């Protein structure tokens, strides 16, 4: 009995010691901060200047960062924007994170107006004059000639309020003091909300001007100067906060800028020369940052304009990620590698471990930044299952892979039985084949425009993985349906000509990006080769079914822009 009591006392003592150790570990950063004095909070990591000193100060730097930040509640995103690609078939999308207290559309619109003007009055862009490299005077002449071609000068129908995503002329007022504490108030006297008039869209930050320009037919207009300005913002704006994006198989970060814009950051995982290993399944392939950049430029050259603006950026992992993040889960994954480089891995389904860590040189890392679309509270989007979605299984095949008449079933199913949706799927198929992207399981549209609108080409990171292989199965929707827009067919034929060679146009366009060269020559050559294959499939279709039954008129002279006829 005495031994049993002694054993119970021993267990109790061990338990008390363990609890004490846990308490001490939690209090250690605060105690260290007090001991260090009031100037501790002003210390900053200088990894980019003295990388050799980083390992010695790493432990203290982490303790100081944790103590200074105070680790507030779960990091929340501003209500203005969201980048949704959740695989929910035919369901209305919902925001991943909501701002506390914002429960309706009016509140969200108040924030939209506030960010528009506050972002303008507090524009403190970082001074980086080398963001866009100096180019020769005669650069981009081939690209300019393309955009001057009549096929790239077609006009849209007159836009009504139902055809634009937002109405710029709004009388909603806002509290200009709200930016001080970032809390929106619905109470107060009338004097607290002075009339501000209707500010011009030219005074809005570029990301908001991009949102305002979205309409039923395009994400942005062909010659919109806001695009170049927004691309520059993506690589020059100071990053104020960083958080991991929930969902998805690989690590992606949500970055917020000083002008309240936000972008999705995909870090570099492969070098330009690396190809997808032949034994990799498409659903376990890496997501490449340079593929996201190249996809935006390819989409614009094809005149689809359905990919949100993307730019490459060299990010300081210490100053622009670790030191500004409020995401404790992300912050805890930073470490120094044996090669004295700063690394982190975050949390995700695949490739988020020490073995697959993302490491800088010593703390600089490349990545792509994709501008956010308007938040779902302001502009709901609908997520659709791609009819030609792959099985995402190691052994099973999808129905379209075994049924040659699969397209006939699709044509009888809404929304593909009317309107232009099926033709938009063909555009997306051509776009994916040129990139070699097999990972198109879902797509999205803006809910406001119903079924008569374009498909948003989101999430293109698994493109440009193999320049030595052309995945012909991506073209199955085109070969099964034998349908294409007249405008698309004419532009593909144009891009196959020597004076408008697709690879040369891509090379010129990508020179504008900070991370040039974005694609190595073999990938550019593959674009020309795949373009010829697309045109051959369409030629076979026309020979088999006739031009009128394959090529659908959608140009102004065809008088079928908004609602193409169907067989």
Automatic annotation (TrEMBL):
Q: What is this protein called?
A: FAM20 C-terminal domain-containing protein
- PROSITE patterns from the xrefs? PROKAR_LIPOPROTEIN
* Keyword Membrane included in the entry's annotation: yes
| Organism listed in the record | Conger conger (Conger eel)
The UniProt entry's sequence similarity note says: Belongs to the FAM20 family.
Can you supply a Gene Ontology BP term from the record?
Answer: enamel mineralization
Which residues hold ATP? 250, 266, 287, 370-373, 444, 459
Which cofactors go with this protein? Mn(2+)
TM spans, by residue? 7-25
* Residues bound to Mn(2+): 287, 459
Main subcellular localisation:
Golgi
Q: Which superkingdom?
A: Eukaryota
InterPro entries per record: FAM20 (IPR024869), FAM20_C (IPR009581)
| Any one GO molecular function term | protein serine/threonine kinase activity
* Location(s), subcellular: Golgi apparatus
Q: Residue ranges of the FAM20 C-terminal domain?
A: 334-550
